[in-house]
Amino acid sequence: MEKSIQFVTVHGPESTGKTTLALALANAFALPWIAEEARNHIVEGQSFTEDDILRLAQLQYKVEKEAIQSKESTLIVADTNLINFVVWLTWENFTVPQWLIKAIDNQPYRYNLLLQVDVPWVNDGFRKISDQSLRDEWFTLYAQTLDKYGLHYEVIDGDYTSRENMATSLLQDWLKNNYPSFSSKENN
Predict the structure, then answer these.
(1) Cβ(65)–Cβ(5) under 8 Å?
(2) Are strands 6-11 and 33-34 parallel, antiparallel or unpaired?
(3) Against a cut of 0.85, is the pTM above it?
(4) Which of 16, 45, 54, 97 is the most exposed place for a label (fewest CB within 10 A)?
(5) Exposed, middle or buried, 64 (CB in 10 Å: 0-12/13-18/19+)?
(6) What is the pLDDT of residues 39-84, one digit of tens each?
(7) What is the pLDDT of residues 110-163, one digit of tens each?
(8) Mapping DSSP to helix (H, G, I), strand (E, B) and coil, where does residue 126 land?
(9) Angstrom distances, CA of residue 145 to CA of 4, 141, 159, 185
(10) What are the residue ranges spanned by the domains of the chain?
């Protein structure tokens, strides 16, 4: 019987530590990691049209499908997924196309962590939303979108060390219940 591949995804507004946490979890549990593909296709200070966002969503979807087809592992850690593009399109008052909704429904998004906006915003040349009230609105929109798609999530907060500890512990517990053969490197 073919094993089902599932994604463990870190969600949240920009500058909340998604990539850092996803890499830490991938390392702790010896899992493959999928990066945010959009980072490879944008330039500093770029503005985005609806078509730009949809093109980036298609690139992310392609990377996710390739990871599933590789069958490298039954679990894959991602620092974003297609939910990000629904949030982005909604924020910009653009229409979420049917293909994107269908793709989300068909992707194996199994375990989701949502990062709170309680760490400082860091300007890396790509990020644009530094205002805390707007960051809070983005967080709420992520939560609403995850709820809308029926994707259970755990909220992760605190400083970076606390986030990593909390996420590792929560994922370890989830794995014990769903994938008893997995354990973190620290427990081996």
Answers:
(1) no
(2) unpaired
(3) yes
(4) 45
(5) buried
(6) 766 655 567 889 999 999 999 999 999 988 887 778 999 999 999 9
(7) 899 999 999 988 877 666 787 889 999 999 999 999 999 999 999 999 999 999
(8) coil
(9) 24, 6, 25, 33
(10) 6-187
H or E stretch including 9?
Answer: strand 6-11
Q: Which two tokens stand for residue 49?
A: 């049209």
Structure tokens at 148: 């809308």
**87-110 exposure pattern, b = at least 16 Cβ within 10 A, e = fewer:** bbbeeeebebeeebeebbeebebb
- Per this entry, what is the length of the chain? 188
Chain position carrying tokens 């992310």: 60
Residue 98 reports pLDDT greater than 90: yes
Q: Please name the residue that has the structure tokens 């998604």.
A: 18
Q: How far apart are the two ends of the chain, measured CA to CA in Å?
A: 28
